[in-house]
Amino acid sequence: MKKAVIFDMDGVICHTNPFHSLAFKEFFAKRDMFPTEEEFQLHMYGKSNSYIMSHFFGRKIVGEELLELENEKEGLFREIYKDIIDPIAGFQDFFSQLKTNQFLTGVATSAPYANLELIAGTLSLMDKMESILASEDVSKHKPDPEVYLKSALKLQLEPEFCVVFEDSFSGVTAAKNAGMKVVGVLSSHSKSDLPVCDLYIKDFREVGVSKILELIG
Predict the structure, then answer these.
(1) What is the average per-residue pLDDT within 71-94?
(2) 88 DSSP assignment
(3) Is the pTM of this model over 0.85?
(4) Which of 44, 188, 47 is nearest to 200 (CA)?
(5) Tell me, what's the pLDDT at 26?
(6) Which of 9, 107, 166, 212 could make an SS bond with 171 (beta carbons 3.0 to 4.6 A apart)?
(7) Per the omega criterion (within 30 degrees of 0), is the bond before 143 cis?
(8) Are 141 and 109 contacting, i.e. CB atoms less than 8 angstroms apart?
(9) Which helix (H) or strand (E) holds 75?
(10) Which residues are CB-neighbours of 197 under 8 A, at least 6 positions away?
(11) C-alpha distances in angstroms, 75 versus 10, 102, 174?
(12) Each residue of 88-127: pLDDT tens digit?
């Protein structure tokens, strides 16, 4: 039976949250809004842009307005991050181990496809993954399990044969709701900030194929 490992992107493949924070600060400063780092911790990291915009503007941001604002903010992020892209320690070696051992792999992110293309493209992951899903591919964002259930369908596997790497409360919740095993990546949050995971790592030097096989048998 084939087995799969599915990665969230922000905070999992790369520690992008500080750069999203910079982009949002610039985005909001243009509008004379100055959220604190504490507010970002609660209402930005691991959240969809529709949630973030709606929360900080204090009203529902949807449709064309959301698209325009999202394009502006994500454009700022890509400009800031394009020359910095650096995976979390051990990621490339761990990913190579997975492919050597015939694991299927995927990415399931709440970020737009352009961000995924920038990061996964720069790291030469796009043609090595069997499932690539971004915010445009779902109608319900994490913590809804849609992106992970769609990933399992694309990989042609039952959820029980999938292990997910996530770093946020909403992401872990989505993966658990999909019936998958979850490894919590403690890049942005502590264990106490996340729902209970099957395993926790600070970076990918702490995990190997044998540990993944222990999780899904």
Answers:
(1) 97
(2) P
(3) yes
(4) 188
(5) 96
(6) 166
(7) yes
(8) no
(9) helix 63-81
(10) 166, 172, 182, 183, 184, 191
(11) 16, 36, 26
(12) 999 999 999 999 999 999 999 989 999 999 999 999 999 9
| Long-range interactions of 48-52: CB distance < 8 A, separation 24+ | 48/110, 48/135, 48/141, 48/142, 49/73, 49/74, 49/110, 49/135, 50/141, 51/141, 52/24
Q: Which two tokens stand for residue 54?
A: 């709606």
Amino acid letter for position 175: A
The DSSP code for 195 is -
Asked whether the beta carbons of 167 and 156 are under 8 A apart, the reply is no
Residue 131's SS3 state is strand
**Phi, psi at residue 105, to the nearest 5°?**
-135, 155
Q: Which residues pair with 164 in a beta bridge?
A: 6, 182
Asked if residues 15 and 187 have their Cβ atoms less than 8 Å apart, the reply is: yes
Angle between helices 146-155 and 169-177 (to 10 degrees): 50
CA-to-CA distance for 35 and 15, rounded, in angstroms?
Answer: 21
pLDDT tens digits along 121-163 = 999 999 999 999 999 999 998 999 999 999 999 999 999 999 9
